[in-house]
Structure formats: C-alpha cells, structure tokens
Amino acid sequence: MQPIDLELFFEQQQFDCEKIAHPPLADCKQADALELNRPGARLKNLFLRDNYGREHFLLITRPDKQVDLKKLSNQIGKARLGFASTERLWCHLGVKPGCVSMLAVLNNSSNSVAVLLDTDIWQNNHLFQCHPFVNDRTWIVTKLQLEQIFTHSGHEVAVISVPERAL
Predict the structure, then answer these.
(1) Cβ atoms within 10 A of the Cβ of 98, count?
(2) What 3-state DSSP class applies to 99?
(3) What is the distance between the alpha carbons of residues 138 and 14, in angstroms, rounded to a whole number?
(4) Measured between alpha carbons, how far is 30 from 69 in angstroms, rounded to an integer?
(5) HSE-CB of 103 using CA atoms within 13 angstroms
(6) Among 36, 54, 95, 163, which has the highest number of CB atoms less than 10 A from its own CB?
(7) Considering all CA atoms of the chain, what is the largest pairwise distance in Å, rounded to the nearest integer?
(8) Is a pLDDT exceeding 90 seen at residue 25?
C-alpha cells in the first residue's frame, strides 16, 4: 500500500493545523512518560478485526480506557473482536503500529474499515491529537476537519459508548 500524501491533502483541502514534532511514541504510556503538553484530546487508537478476519474496525477512545472487547463485540453484533495483525494494519490503513490515527482512513479507499468513535471523546472535544502516519509527529486537527475527512474518504462513523473493563 502507498499511503496518500497527507501534507498535500491538507493543502488541497485548505486545512490548517498545528504540527508538533517529538520523539517517536509507540503508545500512550510513552507519551505519558514524556509529559508532553499538547492541545487537544489525547486518543487511544485500536485497530481491531472480527473473529473471522473479514471485518475491520478503527476504534478511537480515551487513552486511559481499558476497553472490554467482549462487551464491545456483543454491543456492535460482531463475532469476537481482537487486535488485527501488523500486516492487516498496513494492508487496510497504510500505517505501522504506533502510527494509527483517524487520519489513516484516507488510506482506506476500499472502505473496508469501520470507524467507531467513543462518545467520551467525540462529544466533549473539538481538537484532537492525530499522528500523520508516523509516530514522531502530532497534528492537532479540528472536529470539523475530521468530519470532512470522513466524508471525503466515504467512511461512515459510529459514535458509541465504548464499554470499559472492570478492574
């Protein structure tokens, strides 16, 4: 897969956003350790697949939420959800682990990935921290820009209450 030129896309759409460089961050814990102070909602981005590997999902939630995948599977009516492989991530979203964000739907021209947004983050924020296909940068993107990206890419978004695992 050849990812789109994200800089060019933002320029063509006349999207302006703050761009922040930082050391590579593989996950939310690494970001916590650096104590980076960036505007916008921090996100946890999970790439999931159903038990049969036929359906794929990009789940966006709070970084501190421990998602109950069994309850989520039941909630959306899909066979047991699990984490998709690195190969599937590259094939469907054109990014590597640690680089996943909502922006990656632009690489999914087949619309083979369903987007699930947690109400916890989507309804209470207007700025979002997104990796631009790499994990050593963060772009601060507005909700309106993301909605336009979803429309442009043809992805319908389900805003749901994501179940949390009891600790």
Answers:
(1) 15
(2) coil
(3) 18
(4) 23
(5) 29
(6) 95
(7) 46
(8) no
Quick: pLDDT tens for 69-107. Answer: 999 999 999 989 999 999 999 999 999 999 999 999 999
* Cα–Cα distance measured from residue 30 to residue 125, given in angstroms and rounded to the nearest whole number: 23
In degrees, rounded to 5, the angle at the alpha carbon of residue 67 between the alpha carbons of residues 94 and 73 is: 80
Q: What is the pLDDT of residue 166?
A: 85
Residue 161 in tokens: 């209450």
Strand 44-49 versus strand 56-61 pairing type: antiparallel
Q: Which fold has domain 6-13+29-160?
A: YbaK protein (3.90.960)
Q: Where are the domains of the chain?
A: 6-13+29-160
Q: Which pLDDT value is given to residue 119?
A: 97
CA angle 123, 6, 131 (to 5 degrees): 50
Give 95: exposed, middle or buried? Use CB within 10 Å, 0-12, 13-18, 19+.
Answer: buried
Distance of CA 28 to the CA centre of its chain: 13
Contact 133/92 with Cβ under 8 angstroms? no
Q: How many residues does the chain have?
A: 167
Give the separation between CA 119 and CA 69, rounded to whole angstroms: 16
Q: What are 116's two structure tokens?
A: 């699930």
